[in-house]
Amino acid sequence: MITVIGHKGVVGGATYQLFKNLGYDVCGADKGEHIAESDIYFICVPEGNVEEVIKILPPGLTIIRSSVPPWTTKKMSEKYNRHICHNPEFLHQAMALIDAHNPDSVVIGECCEEHGSIVEEIYKPLLCPIVRTKPEISEMVKLARNNYGSCIISFWNEMDAICKAAGINGHQVGMICSLDPIIAAKGSRLHKKYGGACLPKDAKQMISFARENKIEPILLQAIEEVNNTHEAIS
């Protein structure tokens, strides 16, 4: 039995439906209600509620899907003496269900080889690359991917501002540049800041994490400044 906690949210809903469609015995639960015993628990709640959920979970393998600062999974594993893995999601809010069924990869931050293998087996039917690593790596991968997306959007918005000042069509510049395979195709999102549930939150989380480790994130701060000069993407 798989229990998805936070199944009414975007990530939890997509995760729940994915496992159901793959033929698993799956049920959903909210973070505050009594959670019945299960073999595996997927936590899909906002970062601030993760520990609240872990505190009340019955025994069983726990997998955090939420975006959390690096070392959170390891700390929770030690604090509550339970097996916890990290399995970041890379879902776009408007296409969460489609993305869940068609991932470019699955990343598993495993607490140990045995439980990493259990999580891998769950995702094998998706026939995509599965990467197994340490939880602190998978936690950082999630933040790095989202911050990279934020960086690219802000970069093209700044290019567009320069183009506009010079009387050049910035949209065409972005589209032509994106023909280069090493350049991400984000040029179509000109004039709009990155928004949604993840990118702004994860940008702030990465900046905070950097400062906690005595690194001043000059580039990340600049990305936020550029972003704040534009309107949000609807």
Verbal overview:
The structure is a single chain. The chain is globular and about 65 Å long. Helix 6 packs across helix 8 and helix 6 packs across helix 9. The protein has 234 residues and is an alpha/beta fold. The strands form three sheets. The chain has a five-stranded parallel beta sheet, sandwiched between helices. It has two domains: 132 residues, Rossmann fold (3-Layer(aba) Sandwich); 86 residues, Orthogonal Bundle (N-(1-d-carboxylethyl)-l-norvaline Dehydrogenase, domain 2), CATH 1.10.1040.
Rg from Cα: 19 Å
Instruction: Spell out the CATH superfamily of the largest domain.
Output: NAD(P)-binding Rossmann-like Domain
Report the average pLDDT across residues.
90
- Given helix and strand content, the structural type is alpha/beta
Number of DSSP strands?
Answer: 9
* Number of structural domains: 2
What labels describe this entry?
Rossmann fold; single chain; alpha/beta; N-(1-d-carboxylethyl)-l-norvaline Dehydrogenase, domain 2; 2 domains; 234 residues; two-stranded parallel ribbon; 9 helices; globular
What is the compact description of this entry?
It contains nine helices and nine strands.
Topology diagram in text:
Layout (H helix, E strand, L loop, with lengths): L1 E4 L4 H12 L4 E4 L10 E4 L6 H7 L4 E4 L7 H9 L3 E3 L9 H6 L4 E4 L3 H11 L6 E4 L1 H31 L4 H8 L14 E2 L5 H14 L5 H10 L3 E2 L2
Parallel strand pairs: 1-2, 1-3, 3-4, 4-5, 6-7, 8-9
Helix pairs in contact: 6-7, 6-8, 6-9
